[in-house]
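From the methods appendix. Each design record in this collection lists the tokenized structure first, followed by the designed amino acid sequence. Records were kept in a plain field format so they could be parsed without special tools. The example shown here is representative of the layout used throughout.

RECORD:
FOLD TOKENS (169 positions):
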């Protein structure tokens, strides 16, 4: 009888320890803002890919501009309440390319001849792109490897990007 009590006590201690570790992990994930960057079809919501991210992570979407035929890269940051556009890098003017600065924005020139417009820090509640109409679009998370959106989603897809924070309660 005494051995059964000791075994039950050990099991109870193990269960309590497991619950404490689980609660600690859940609280950490909530505080750090771990989640996913989801890439989905803007029409029907079909998920093409999910990539782990956390608050403070960055990603970019690059493509060849359909009018001026030069590279353009948009840079975004994951913040606690969503996706924010931070800067755009482009190499030529054309329809749809920013030509005037708003308050707080600045224009700098890169050594490679690029024009870098920054200072946006603007939340984008519905970030969508039309993929591969002229060239491929590439997604790069935290300056990692290029992910071809044409390969992932298909040519001429309307793709939505969203940040989903892991929620446990």
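DESIGN:
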């Amino acid at each position: 009888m005494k051995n059964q009590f000791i075994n039950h006590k050990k099991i109870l201690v193990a269960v309590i320890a497991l619950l404490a570790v689980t609660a600690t992990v859940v609280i950490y994930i909530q505080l750090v803002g771990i989640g996913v960057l989801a890439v989905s079809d803007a029409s029907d919501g079909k998920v093409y890919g999910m990539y782990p991210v956390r608050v403070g992570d960055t990603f970019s979407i690059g493509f060849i501009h359909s009018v001026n035929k030069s590279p353009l890269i948009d840079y975004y940051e994951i913040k606690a309440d969503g996706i924010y556009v931070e800067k755009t890098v482009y190499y030529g003017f054309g329809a749809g390319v920013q030509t005037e600065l708003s308050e707080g924005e600045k224009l700098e020139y890169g050594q490679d001849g690029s024009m870098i417009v920054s200072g946006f820090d603007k939340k984008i509640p519905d970030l969508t792109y039309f993929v591969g109409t002229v060239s491929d679009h590439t997604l790069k998370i935290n300056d990692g490897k290029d992910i071809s959106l044409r390969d992932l989603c298909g040519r001429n897809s309307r793709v939505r990007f969203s940040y989903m924070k892991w929620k446990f309660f």
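APPENDIX NOTE: Residues 24-32 have pLDDT under 50 and may be disordered.
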